[in-house]
Specification:
Blueprint: E1 7-14, H1 18-29, E2 34-38, E3 52-53, H2 55-63, H3 67-73, E4 84-87, E5 94-98, E6 117-118, H4 121-132, E7 136-138, E8 140-147, E9 152-158, E10 163-173, H5 180-184, E11 189-204, H6 208-211, E12 219-222, E13 229-233, E14 239-245, H7 253-261, E15 268-282, E16 290-292, E17 298-299, H8 307-326, H9 337-357, H10 361-364, H11 373-395, H12 398-401, E18 424-426, E19 429-430, E20 439-443, H13 448-460, E21 464-468, E22 474-477, E23 483-487, H14 493-497
Parallel strand pairs: 1-2, 1-10, 2-7, 4-12, 10-16, 20-21
Antiparallel strand pairs: 3-6, 4-5, 8-9, 9-10, 11-14, 11-15, 12-13, 13-14, 15-17, 18-19, 20-22, 22-23
Helix pairs in contact: 1-4, 1-8, 8-9
Length: about 500
């Protein structure tokens, strides 16, 4: 395209990883067109990265109509296991186990509309790419942008060196740790990096599953002082992943996996990935028209499975607000609440993940575990107690995953801000299934306040769906399923929830 005649789009999303794609899906959910610019033409299956999609993210996938698609294609069914096993080796002696991990046990619970799901990140991206459709432009990347009072001029380049210009009203930067958008708005990371190296291996191990004495588990933690780490299955065939802690990139991956197994098993190395954990938070999330989400805004250690799930929350928050502004039922000032709502959530997540990282397999590994049966049994109870004491919060973090709140936000009334408490209304029908894509008024619609809010929404042109729950107090629920107001007198509540004070 000629640089003098730039293409125009309401929103340009820089980066088509899971967060950028989720942003596009959220915008489409509200009927807003966008362009996602992503350099990778295809998804790499050899570096699965995240493997846990949280219960909250799955609720949002359900909201988009994608939860069942993702589950049906996930190699590990949610019913397969919700346990983490701690042992001396993949083929060694079991020390203890933790159940109910990562919200995988929430099927049918009133706590959530969806349980968590173990699924490799590439599959998540595939499902989101399909949902994004022709809004995804691959083989191109954002090379620079310039913001002015009326919009953002974006320069994108292809791998062959071709350049195009795109004019957008808003830009969402989901372009990762080396974010061009973060640099463009003058934001920078603050935080620290862990000193310990880590080494990921994806490998094929025929027959390993049949030899495993521990049964199904989502994580197998190896507490062997000579080779501590953790491993798990990517599918129910022969493909596995592992993380060796304290191992540098020149390690022999075959020897490393065999050490974790505790035997000279046959393996085929498919991919390796050295990395270090980072606890980083952007000092600002936005300018007037450019917003950061996902790894462009924050990075945290993987322990606890929060990773891209935090970015999915970013995508929904900025997505519904951009849609409200672009569709004309909210003022542009609403967008200023994105940073004030999401940055504290990321800060809390980073610190939670850092606490989980404080005690890993090397810290839990006791040399006596590797002795004879008598020595193992003498030390096993103490190690098991240390595991449960230090790792419980890593596997049981629903207070963070489902319980984060926007209390104190300028668009949230006092006493509100939390995710609408979930319940099942009938078999398979979630309360969330009745909420609208815009605002929802939940409660007894015969109460006087209901008519006040319905009239206010009609006057403002704000989409509002009434969800009648006879005998229950009224709650005004935002498009992201968080409560904006509850009480008896809703006068001005909707205006306040849109940033009109």
């Amino acid at each position: 395209m000629n640089l003098d005649t730039p293409e125009s789009v309401p929103v340009l999303v820089a980066g088509g990883g899971p967060v950028g794609l989720a942003t596009a899906v959220e915008l489409a959910y509200h009927g807003v067109r966008c362009l996602v610019v992503e350099p990778r033409e295809s998804v790499s299956w050899l570096r699965p990265r995240a493997k846990t999609t949280s219960a909250r993210s799955m609720e949002l996938f359900r909201r988009w109509g994608l939860a069942e698609t993702l589950r049906s294609r996930a190699p590990l069914a949610v019913s397969w296991s919700d346990e983490a096993v701690f042992a001396t080796g993949l083929l060694g002696r079991e020390i203890t186990r933790i159940g109910g991990c990562f919200g995988l046990d929430l099927a049918g619970s009133d706590l959530a509309a969806e349980p968590g799901q173990q699924v490799p990140q590439p599959l998540v991206e595939e499902v989101l790419r399909e949902a994004t459709g022709d809004a995804l432009l691959t083989g191109w990347q954002v090379a620079g942008l310039r913001e002015d009072a009326d919009g953002v001029s974006v320069r994108i380049t292809s791998k062959t060196g071709e350049e195009r210009a795109v004019r957008a009203q808003y830009v969402v930067g989901c372009d990762g740790p080396r974010s061009v958008t973060r640099a463009a708005i003058g934001a920078r990371y603050e935080g620290r990096q862990d000193a310990r190296p880590n080494f990921n291996v994806v490998f094929r191990a025929p027959g390993l599953a049949e030899r495993l004495p521990h049964g199904p588990a989502v994580h197998y933690w190896v507490l062997n002082p000579a080779q501590p780490g953790l491993a798990g299955r990517l599918d129910l065939k022969e493909t596995w992943w592992c993380i060796a802690q304290g191992v540098r990139e020149d390690a022999d991956p075959v020897r490393l996996v065999r050490n974790l197994a505790g035997a000279d098993i046959d393996i085929e190395v498919l991919a390796t990935d050295p990395w270090t954990a980072r606890m980083l938070l952007a000092d600002r999330y936005a300018s007037e028209r450019v917003f950061l989400a996902g790894d462009a805004a924050h990075q945290n250690p993987p322990y606890g499975g929060h990773g891209f799930n935090t970015g999915i929350g970013d995508a929904v928050n900025i997505g519904w607000k951009l849609a409200a502004v672009l569709r004309g039922w909210a003022p542009a000032s609403l967008l200023r609440t994105y940073e004030s709502e999401r940055r504290p959530i990321a800060a809390d997540t980073i610190e939670a993940a850092a606490r989980n990282m404080a005690t890993l397999a090397p810290e839990l590994a006791d040399p006596a575990l590797m002795g004879d049966a008598a020595a193992f049994e003498r030390v096993r109870p103490a190690v098991a107690e240390a595991v449960r004491r230090t790792k419980d919060s890593e596997f049981h973090s629903l207070d963070l995953v489902l319980g984060y709140t926007y209390a104190g936000s300028p668009i949230v009334a006092p006493g509100a801000g939390e995710r609408l408490p979930h319940r099942w209304l009938s078999a398979g029908e979630s309360l969330y299934d009745r909420l609208g894509p815009g605002f929802s008024l939940v409660g007894d619609q015969r109460l006087p306040g209901a008519n006040v809010l319905v009239s206010e929404a009609r006057e403002l042109g704000v989409p509002l769906r009434a969800v009648d729950l006879p005998g229950e107090p009224l709650a005004l629920v935002r498009p992201d399923q968080h409560v904006a107001w509850r009480g008896e007198d809703p006068s001005g509540a909707l205006r306040a929830a849109l940033g009109e004070r």
